[in-house]
């Protein structure tokens, strides 16, 4: 068994071996100024407590288990055989006869949802092998500190699974005239990713870390290192090491002492850092971010002119800035409270699973929240995680070649994920089938509610890898673009990129092709064309009996694809429940003589193949497989991302069925007047009320009658429904709590958005607020919408250009526009209220601008 590992040992970077703090330090030591040291491994802890295990288990059942187990460990002698091992490790690390810091490093640190900072103990100024051994044992005991014990209970972690590694590191002897502290490579307090935030004080950094004493604050611009602001505190004290008269002189714990020094009047109000030192600390924090590939929270210290990094951990909580930037495309319209409550936990579960796959730290806060019935994204978090590409490995042909083994090791999962996803799809589809056909009529109210939760749980588990698919698609697009830009200029690289991905078969394109075939059936029958033109909307359904062959073909199409959504929210019907929307699309397509997409598809495929061949042949021989694989995977993830969305929407039908049944039960109980109003009750009060009705089952408390238990839901539903209906009628603030300023995105005569599809067109706009407006869309108009989804496809065949309030180059609107050769500009804020139908504008999809005429 390995008791100790040097910081530079590759095994020391493993969390299970070195704990969170130790693994981070070992990684930092590769190219950052980290004081020398070694790790006492988690395996050593396991060996130490093995003889105590039966007693520990007994103490778990006592009144105060944490204190009792901690006392047991402190009273257990360190094995004599360990002393020689510690002495050898200290000598190898250059720590012999030096004062060291002995820091706890739990193996559960840095796990998703767990932040153990400050839960375990640190011992400073430890000198001598015996004192180090005793400090290590006391760190073991601190694993059982009462607050750490309670924290694990809150997380639902098995107490006996917790292990402790220990970091033994050269103590940076910061004097009372020198400074130490913490720094964040982005400002998590203000949510500003363009600034470094530094807290500093004189003496050892524990003064700052502990948070109990006044400290100086400096804000430094990342771009050029200039000091933006500072707040200088009155710092009356400094913590320093006091050298004992003899190396063996102990304090009460067998460790050398630290001393509090009272600072003089001149020093206590003086900045702890000079401008040059503050700039150096800021640069070190950014270096740590570059090294780890993610913003970092570091501890640092000065000793003379030397600046040391003592600790580095990822920043996983930031001050949120709630905007529609990240959410407007995914959630363009208001969302009912129950729908959001059912999907929110699953979304964040999937998000952190995806970050783990991609080698990014978990995010410990909310990514999306509901505000006034609209969904807002945490833009600070987006900025924090965005663009985390392996750019160092892709900076040149030489570095790519050198990094091939690392690329294969770090990103092998990208090749495996589509295979695993397809393998698990059958389980999800069988679950959908089972839940869709499970009888509900004989179930109690609580059993119907359990059925709703079962559908939600199935969706949560299915959706777990799905955000990783979308994020990986973006990463692959970025990697491919970056590699192309190494070889050619940016404009040419973009053209080559578009040609490489010009013809990717997706589920949506297959469904669109089937819609087109339906439209050909209609077009071939002039009587049917005339009849459908005269009977739009729901009136069109009534005349289909006159055309039985088409009716059967249309019914078959809906049986296959009727789960496709008109809106993200399950409150809204799908295609099969609103077939008139689909019929209107077919009618619109029937007015088109040719399918522009199909006509050019062969040309795109030929151009794509020729471009791929040219790119691969131009690549250095050693890189050809990598280039070819990145192209293949970019296409594969494009198709997979679309297929994942198509399959996800299958949940809507069984969920609507179950919630309609639940709503009917609540109508019967006098709680609601409309079964659909169940969507306006938040999850927690609904769950609590339904559980309280389970009298006599052993699950409810039996204190309330069903009517009494459910009575409070009426007011919740009425209030939320009124708020929702008001939200439908208004345009949401783009940044919550901040009214949009006129001209925020205006530059001279034009409005700046995001380039979605190249080309330029001038024409009249038609604003589409919902699928109900489809039948009125005029041929050749420029489509203006909040966003689009596959239900909007037919409008693209009618449109001459596209403007949306949200989305980017990967959005449905942009992808479909490129397929059809339509100029498109995305992310024009408030477009649906900014433009009026009939207004003439110029759309420049190459520059991403819209110019009102």
Structure overview:
By secondary structure, the chain is an alpha+beta fold. The protein has 32 helices and 25 strands. It has a nine-stranded mixed β-sheet with strand order 17-18-25-24-20-21-22-23-19, with helices on one face. The protein has a six-stranded antiparallel β-sheet with strand order 9-8-7-6-12-13. It has a five-stranded antiparallel β-sheet with strand order 1-2-5-3-4. Helix 5 packs across helix 6 (129-142). The termini are far apart.
Keyword list:
globular
Structural class: alpha+beta
> What is the strand tally?
25
Question: Are there runs of 5+ residues with pLDDT below 50, and where?
Answer: 110-117, 245-256, 696-702
What spatial form do the alpha-carbon principal axes imply?
Answer: globular
Largest sheet, order of strands side by side?
17-18-25-24-20-21-22-23-19
State the distance separating the first and last CA atoms: 77 Å
Helical content stands at: 40-55%
Main β-sheet, in a few words? 9 strands, mixed
Rg of Cα set: 32 Å
Q: Concise description?
A:
By secondary structure, the chain is of the alpha+beta class. Helices cover 46% and strands 15% of the residues.
How are the elements arranged and paired?
Blueprint: E1 4-6, H1 15-28, E2 37-40, H2 42-49, H3 53-59, H4 65-74, H5 80-92, E3 100-106, E4 122-126, H6 129-142, H7 146-155, E5 164-170, E6 179-184, E7 195-202, H8 206-210, E8 216-221, E9 227-231, E10 237-242, E11 257-262, H9 265-268, H10 275-292, E12 296-303, E13 306-314, E14 322-323, H11 337-357, E15 368-371, E16 374-378, H12 379-385, H13 397-402, H14 404-410, H15 412-437, H16 445-463, H17 466-487, H18 490-500, H19 507-523, H20 526-534, H21 539-542, H22 548-561, H23 579-590, H24 596-618, H25 624-648, H26 652-668, H27 683-692, H28 706-710, H29 713-728, E17 746-747, E18 750-752, E19 754-757, E20 760-767, E21 782-785, H30 793-798, E22 801-804, H31 812-820, E23 824-826, H32 831-834, E24 840-844, E25 849-852
Parallel strand pairs: 20-21, 21-22, 22-23
Antiparallel strand pairs: 1-2, 2-5, 3-4, 3-5, 6-7, 6-12, 7-8, 8-9, 10-11, 12-13, 14-16, 15-16, 17-18, 18-25, 19-23, 20-24, 24-25
Helix pairs in contact: 4-6, 5-6, 11-16, 11-17, 15-16, 15-25, 15-26, 16-26, 17-18, 17-25, 19-22, 19-23, 24-25
């Amino acid at each position: 068994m390995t008791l100790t590992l040097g910081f530079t040992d590759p095994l020391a970077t493993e969390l299970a071996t070195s704990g969170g703090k130790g693994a981070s330090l070992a990684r930092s030591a590769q190219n950052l100024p980290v004081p020398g040291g070694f790790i006492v491994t988690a395996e050593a802890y396991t060996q130490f407590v093995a003889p105590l295990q039966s007693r520990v288990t007994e103490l778990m059942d006592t009144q105060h288990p944490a204190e009792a187990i901690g006392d047991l460990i402190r009273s257990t002698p360190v094995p004599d055989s360990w002393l020689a091992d510690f002495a050898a490790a200290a000598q190898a690390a250059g720590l012999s006869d030096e004062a060291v810091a002995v820091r706890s490093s739990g193996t559960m640190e840095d796990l998703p949802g767990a932040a153990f900072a400050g839960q375990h103990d640190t011992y400073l100024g430890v000198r001598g092998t015996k004192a180090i051994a005793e400090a290590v044992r006391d760190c073991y005991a601190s694993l059982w500190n009462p607050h750490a014990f309670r924290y694990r209970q809150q997380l639902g972690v098995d107490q006996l699974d917790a292990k402790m590694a220990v970091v033994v590191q050269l103590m940076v002897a910061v004097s009372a005239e020198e400074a130490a502290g913490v720094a964040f490579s982005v400002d998590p307090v203000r949510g500003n990713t363009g600034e470094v935030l530094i807290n500093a004080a004189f003496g050892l950094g524990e003064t700052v870390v502990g948070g109990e004493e006044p400290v100086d604050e400096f804000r430094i611009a990342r771009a050029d290192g200039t000091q933006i602001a500072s707040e200088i505190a009155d710092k009356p004290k400094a913590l320093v090491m006091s050298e004992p008269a003899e190396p063996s002189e102990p304090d009460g714990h067998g460790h050398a002492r630290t001393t509090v020094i009272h600072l003089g009047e001149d020093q206590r109000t003086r900045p702890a850092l000079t401008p040059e030192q503050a700039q150096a600390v800021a640069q070190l924090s950014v270096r740590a971010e570059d090294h780890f590939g993610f913003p970092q929270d570091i501890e640092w210290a000065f000793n003379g002119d030397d600046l040391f990094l003592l600790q580095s951990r990822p920043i996983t909580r930031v001050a949120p800035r709630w905007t529609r930037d990240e959410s407007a495309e995914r959630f363009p319209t208001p969302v009912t409270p129950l729908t959001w409550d059912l999907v929110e936990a699953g979304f964040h579960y999937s998000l952190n699973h995806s970050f783990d796959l991609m080698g990014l730290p978990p995010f410990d806060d909310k990514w999306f929240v509901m505000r006034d019935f609209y969904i807002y994204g945490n833009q600070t978090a987006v900025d924090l995680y965005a663009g985390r590409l392996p750019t160092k490995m892709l900076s040149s042909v030489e570095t790519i070649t050198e990094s091939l083994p690392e690329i294969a090791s770090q990103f092998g999962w990208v090749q495996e994920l589509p295979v695993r996803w397809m393998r698990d799809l059958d389980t999800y589809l069988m679950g959908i089938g089972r839940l869709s056909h499970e009888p509900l009529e004989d179930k109690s109210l609580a059993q119907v509610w359990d059925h709703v939760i079962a559908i939600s749980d199935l969706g949560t588990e299915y959706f777990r890898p799905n955000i990783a698919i979308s994020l990986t698609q973006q990463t692959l697009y970025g990697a491919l673009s970056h590699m192309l830009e190494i070889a050619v200029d940016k404009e040419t690289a973009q053209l080559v990129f578009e040609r490489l991905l010009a013809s990717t078969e997706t589920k949506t394109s297959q469904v669109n092709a089937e819609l087109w075939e339906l439209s050909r059936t209609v077009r071939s029958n002039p009587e049917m064309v005339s009849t459908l033109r005269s009977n739009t909307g729901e009136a069109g359904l009534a005349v289909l009996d006159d055309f039985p062959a088409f009716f059967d073909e249309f019914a078959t199409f809906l049986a296959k694809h009727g789960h496709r959504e008109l809106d993200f929210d399950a409150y809204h019907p799908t295609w099969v429940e609103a077939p008139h929307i689909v019929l209107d699309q077919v009618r619109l397509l029937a007015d088109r003589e040719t399918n522009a997409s199909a006509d050019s598809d062969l040309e795109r495929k030929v151009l794509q193949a020729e471009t791929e061949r040219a790119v691969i042949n131009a690549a250095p021989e050693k890189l050809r497989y990598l280039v070819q694989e990145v192209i293949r995977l970019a296409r594969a993830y494009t198709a997979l991302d679309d297929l994942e969305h198509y399959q996800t929407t299958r949940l809507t039908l069984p969920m609507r069925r179950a919630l309609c049944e639940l709503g009917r039960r609540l109508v019967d109980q006098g709680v609601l007047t409309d079964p659909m109003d169940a969507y306006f009750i938040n999850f927690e009060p609904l769950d609590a009320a339904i559980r309280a009705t389970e009298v006599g089952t052993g699950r409810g408390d039996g204190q309330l009658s069903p009517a009494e238990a459910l009575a409070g839901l009426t007011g919740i539903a009425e209030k939320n429904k009124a708020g929702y209906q008001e939200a439908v009628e208004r345009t949401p603030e783009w940044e919550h709590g901040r009214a949009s300023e006129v001209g925020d995105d205006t530059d001279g005569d034009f409005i700046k958005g995001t380039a979605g599809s190249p080309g330029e067109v001038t024409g009249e706009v038609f604003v589409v607020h919902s699928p109900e407006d489809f039948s009125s869309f005029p041929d050749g108009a420029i489509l203006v919408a909040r966003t689009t989804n596959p239900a909007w496809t037919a409008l693209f065949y009618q449109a001459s250009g596209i403007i949306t309030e949200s989305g980017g180059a990967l959005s449905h609107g942009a992808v479909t526009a490129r397929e059809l050769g339509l100029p498109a500009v995305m992310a024009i804020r408030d477009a649906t209220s900014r433009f009026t139908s009939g207004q003439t504008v110029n759309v420049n999809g190459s520059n991403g601008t819209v110019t009102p005429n």
